[in-house]
Amino acid sequence: MESEQEIADKVREILKRLGGKECRFDESISIFAERLKLLSDSGRYGGLRKRIFAANDWNGFRSYAFEVGFAYDFESNGREMAYEVRALSEGRSSVDFRYQSDKKTVHFELRLIAQKKEISDSIRSQLDATGSYAILRNGEGEKGEVVRIQNLALSKCMDEDGQPIKFPPPKIGEYNVIVCNVSETLLGCIDTQDCLLAMYGDPAVPRECERGVFGLCQELPDSAPGQIREYYDKFKHFRETIHGLLFVRKPRQFIEPLLEWESEYNFVPNCTLMRENEIADIDRDLGSFLKPWRDPNGET
Q1: Order of strands, sheet of 104-112, starting from the edge strand that comes earlier in the sequence
Q2: Contact 250, 175 (CB under 8 A)
């Protein structure tokens, strides 16, 4: 069985191979190694460990690091999970995790939502020129990011032809949840209102937060124009299969949040599939060990 030091050395090697600057990550590598060892010692995450050390590009490594952090937040609190589970009998792919608790089963599929390249390029050019950067948060910019979250969530439950993937049809006691890491979205400034926008659109938020977004689980207005009806039809499989989005972000004080992992969580349920008592049960269960997401104004 590998020691934490041996795991840490391997993490340094792969960061170097993928072009990471070791000095940037050194302080958090030991933390990451400790967490990866806990998962490895459980005997349930051999596949994840192999993927971490076989990653051949930076994006792949980052996605697996997200999985490590998510699994650690469960396992370190005594909540066992299964990794890479075939949940859809006729499906060709598996969901990332299966969690069983109190006679319920939750399937989790993770998605790391990276910052858009044009935003990164803009920040980099500003830093090179002035040593600082600024970004204008405006309605259109925020709308585009919320819509991008919606599309990436859809890609986790249906293919380009609209066919179901990964998740099984709803069943009593079983829940399908897509976990979206939005730490980089809107430069880390995404808040709970943006999460509500993605799920329920403009009617779910105060007027000043409206962005012209039609939500994944929003009801169709009687007088809806054709374009809105197209969105409603496009979201049909999500509405009928996915029980909620679990938004994840890391506090902005972490320099390298992929390795220094202390995440905050915000569960937004699909109220068309879940009864109030089911939502309360999921909130109570996950909230008993996952750190709640709090906006600067104190909202959760």
Answers
A1: 81-85, 95-101, 104-112, 174-181, 244-249, 264-269
A2: no
Would you call 141 helix, strand, or coil by DSSP? helix
Q: What is the dihedral of CA 65, 194, 268, 177, to 10 degrees?
A: -40
Which residues on adjacent β-strands are paired with residue 85? 95
Contact by Cβ (8 Å): 26, 59: no
Q: 3-class DSSP state for residue 111? A: strand
Q: How far apart are CA 31 and CA 259, in angstroms?
A: 7
| Crossing angle for the helix pair 58-75 and 22-42, to the nearest 10 degrees | 50
Closest CA to 214 of 229, 185, 206, 156: 229
Span 47-103, pLDDT tens digits: 999 999 999 998 899 899 999 999 999 999 999 999 999 988 776 789 999 999 989
**Dist. CA 164–CA 166, nearest whole Å:** 7
**Tell me: the pLDDT tens digits for 216-275?**
999 998 888 888 999 999 999 999 999 999 999 886 544 454 566 678 999 999 999 999
Structure tokens at 237: 């499989």
pLDDT, tens digit, for every residue of 4-42? Answer: 999 999 998 998 888 865 556 677 888 899 999 999 999
